[in-house]
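Lay summary. Proteins are chains of building blocks that fold into shapes, and those shapes determine what they do. In this project we predict the shape from the chain. Here is one chain we studied, written as its sequence of building blocks.
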Amino acid sequence: MKRREFLAGTAGVAALSALPRHARAAVEFDPRPGDWRSYVLTTTLEIRAPAGAPIGAIEGPVKAWVPLPSIDEAEWMVPEEDQWRGNAERAEIVTDPASGARMIRAEYGPGIPKPTLTVTSFFRTRDRGGSLSRTGTAPLGDEERARYLAATNLLPTDGIVKETADRIVAGATSDREKAKALYDWVVDNSQRVADVRGCGIGDVASMLESGDLGGKCADINALYVALARASGLPARDLYGIRVAPSAFGYKSLGAGTEDVSKAQHCRAEVWLDGPGWVPVDPADVRKVVLEEPPGNNALDNEKVTAARDALFGAWEGNWLAYNDAHDVVLPGSNHLVAFLMYPQAEVAGLLLDCLDAASFAYAIKAAPITT
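And here is the predicted shape, written in a compact code that computers can read:
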């Protein structure tokens, strides 16, 4: 859709199937920097009372938080504008001081029958590729390096995490060799588990202690990030959402409809001297293994190997990055969330289930914007 049409409210939602690239062979997966693509993401909340509350009214104050695009990278992701409307007594943009993650915080008084909030975000993104061939990137600053080497509540860097990382990178002579050894190990040893709720929680120590490396993107990519940090490589999770189909024909690696309420996806990056931030996504390799038609594919399947080769150093720009925040205390609340990738709300101090969009309730829609 055209931006002016969206703002005027006169145009319908553009079809997500209108892809910016020509049709490609089924086993090609080779993202490269190219044209920028513009999107609009609309998050709509109609906050409901928890089970057992009086019908027709929500007792107690209500608060809500909706993540905004906060990653601004000149090469691949540019947030542009955020708008919001609803019946909140107060709504404002707030920032997590530790990470810079931006969000809309809305507050409602008690007894509002239907607290509502609609947040609209405009942004541009494009494919990443050729990252490993870059040279001369300015060094990571001391403060950033310390942050992206630090442990978090669910990503420790000592104990079994450090022991495992040391075994994996033994014999590696460069940071790039370490990063690739960790990537291959995570791909070879993890599994995507379909019945894990949401994107998982990323409790890395528990995964390693149990020997069960199954989960989804927030588990598998967190495992990579923790192992990288334990190996002395700055790394970060990037929490976001898929907004369009894959232009390479991968059904499992894109949004199938305009409704992306359940299309959240966590990606990862590792910092290498010279190239700088390098995209990695072992979780998406395991997603292709499990979900790409016909499903339950072998690791040597053509589509799996194509994705595996590309996703160490590249990824497709059909995805929005919200932030890289861990252990976020929701501003104006005592609640701590492991990461900020979903809308959050509390009613009378009770944090609602952000993974149950229908009961919460919220809906997220994405559409491309044409100029």
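What the prediction tells us: The chain is about 20% helix and 25% strand.
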